[in-house]
Design goal:
Elements: E1 8-14, E2 25-32, H1 37-51, E3 63-69, E4 72-81, E5 84-95, E6 98-103, H2 122-128, E7 138-141, H3 143-153, H4 156-159, H5 162-172, E8 174-185, E9 188-197
Antiparallel strand pairs: 1-2, 2-6, 3-4, 4-5, 5-6, 7-8, 8-9
């Protein structure tokens, strides 16, 4: 992936729809590129790998076909079960220089473009307002949105342990976390972390 030299983002997005309903979340990859040919070759290799790797996360009967969503040409990975078609993933270009791969039906969170970008959302702005704006990128964790996913994925034996109970009390008090790094010089990197706690109810 030598073409991956520009900005990129990887996100875990909560959802309970389609192929992702059992896991409760799916992954989205966005990458900006200045050379379109190499990323297109990469996506073609992904398609070939999916066709030749049935079993596990890639079920038998995978169909890879072109679709048009919000006037954008994309490639969808789908499987047909009885009379129902399930989308496993979608990939393509959001714009001429932004490649994406989205699990399940998460393409609907990208196309059409959301009315409020992540950078403008109140939770993200609250968590990152105090971080340096010139940085190497953000790590952003909306804790409240991820707790239902943890409850769904973790086994009941683990959730009944005192360690989990104590950790869950701590997580329930956290609104979110954001972190970033800044290169101060050739030998020094600054790490900033902001933790946002929920307000304590007034009794």
């Amino acid at each position: 992936m030598g073409w991956l030299t520009e900005d990129f983002a990887i996100a875990a997005v909560p959802t309970t729809a389609g192929a992702l309903r059992s896991s409760g979340f799916g992954l989205v990859l966005l990458a900006r590129t200045t050379v379109a040919d190499l990323p297109r070759q990469f996506l073609s290799k992904l398609d070939r790998w999916a066709r030749s790797s049935p079993g596990g996360p890639i079920p038998d009967g995978l169909e890879i076909r072109a679709e048009t969503l919000a006037q954008t040409e994309v490639t969808a990975w789908t499987v047909r079960s009885q009379s129902m078609t399930t989308r496993l993933a979608t990939q393509g270009f959001l714009t001429q220089d932004v490649l994406f791969w989205a699990a399940g039906d998460l393409i609907t969170s990208l196309l059409p473009a959301p009315s409020t970008a992540l950078a403008q959302s109140p939770t993200f702005r609250r968590l990152t307002a105090g971080l340096p704006t010139t940085n190497g990128g953000y790590f952003y964790w909306h804790v409240g949105a991820s707790l239902p996913i943890l409850d769904r994925l973790l086994p009941s034996e683990l959730k009944s342990t005192p360690a989990y109970t104590q950790g869950r009390v701590l997580l329930d008090a956290v609104r979110g976390l954001a972190a970033t790094t800044t290169n101060l010089d050739d030998r020094t990197v600054r790490l900033d972390i902001l933790l946002s706690l929920k307000p304590t109810p007034v009794e």
